[in-house]
Amino acid sequence: MIHPTAVIDPGAVLGNGVTVGPYAVIGQKVTIGEGTTVGSHAVIESHVRMGKGNHIHSFASIGAIPQDLKFRGEESWVEMGDGNIIREFATVNRGTSGGGGVTRIGNNTLVMAYCHIAHDCVVGSRVIMANAATLAGHITIEDGAIIGGMTGVHQFVRIGEHCIIGGMSAVAQDVPPYVTAVVSRPQRGYALYGLNLIGLRRNRFSPETVAALKQAFKIIFRAEVPLKDALARAEAELPPLPEVKHLIAFVRESKRGVLR
């Protein structure tokens, strides 16, 4: 059903079963997959490709130009997979030529009300961003991460898979996968509070994997040795499970430094 007050560009492509509510606006170069719902007053401005079964709630904005003073009107996009939920007043901006030209969201991700996803961010699948969480440009969020409400994330930060960040955090360094983090400003003491054990169990990580990650956490983030030496020790002493290898590689490849 397309409400008669909706404004849809003639070139927009809407799949079967797409619902568009009152006063919604769908602009040029927009493709919307089948079974998607676009709520009243939502704006899908332009240059957006989204898959099936998404739910764009009222007053959300997707595909607006980036808030980047270097942007000069170049063609750039928002790309979104299937089954995502974008709640009221959330904003997802297009990419820029300096960041690859695409802002990307995976599948089955929940973006709660008043969140912002800036230009050139790559947000994975099954991510949860709680109310008013804000991403600056060029941020990567891996699958299954949870970002607490009113959290701000600095540009170019990476957030690892299946981690959880407490609400009202100010994140300026990479957050390793599988951990629990709470970041204040100024930070006093540790920002990491151990593994995200509840999240790991909910996602059916094996006891063997959880035990190995616990040891990895102690070696990498609590041993009072240089980080390079801690990573080498973890690599030598721990079983070569995919999750352990990913944690070590994530920390080793960090350009901004990791929270500890």
Description:
- The protein folds into 2 domains: 7-138, 3 Solenoid (UDP N-Acetylglucosamine Acyltransferase, domain 1); 197-252, Udp N-acetylglucosamine O-acyltransferase, Domain 2 (Up-down Bundle), CATH 1.20.1180.
- The model has no long low-confidence stretch (mean pLDDT 97).
- α2 (207-222) packs parallel to α4 (242-252) and α3 runs antiparallel to α4.
- Helices cover 17% and strands 25% of the residues.
- It has 260 residues and is α/β, with parallel strands linked by helices.
- The protein is elongated.
- It has 4 helices and 27 strands.
- It has helices at residues 197-202, 207-222, 227-237, 242-252; strands at residues 7-8, 13-14, 19-20, 25-26, 30-32, 37-38, 43-44, 48-50, 55-56, 61-64, 77-80, 85-86, 91-93, 102-105, 110-111, 116-117, 122-123, 128-129, 134-135, 140-141, 146-147, 152-153, 158-159, 164-165, 170-171, 179-181, 192-195.
Shape designation: elongated
> What kind of assembly state do the chains in view correspond to?
single chain
Q: What gyration radius follows from the Cα positions, in whole Å?
A: 20 Å
CATH architecture of the largest domain: 3 Solenoid
Count structural domains: 2
- Side-by-side strand order of the widest sheet: 3-6-9-12-15-18-21-24-26-27
Count of helices? 4
Beta-strand residue percentage: 25-35%
Which residues form runs of ≥5 with pLDDT under 50? Answer: none
- N-to-C span: 51 Å
Write down how many β-strands occur, each being a DSSP E stretch of 2 or more residues. 27
Structural class: alpha/beta
Mean pLDDT: 97
**Percent helix range:** 10-25%
CATH topology of the largest domain: UDP N-Acetylglucosamine Acyltransferase, domain 1
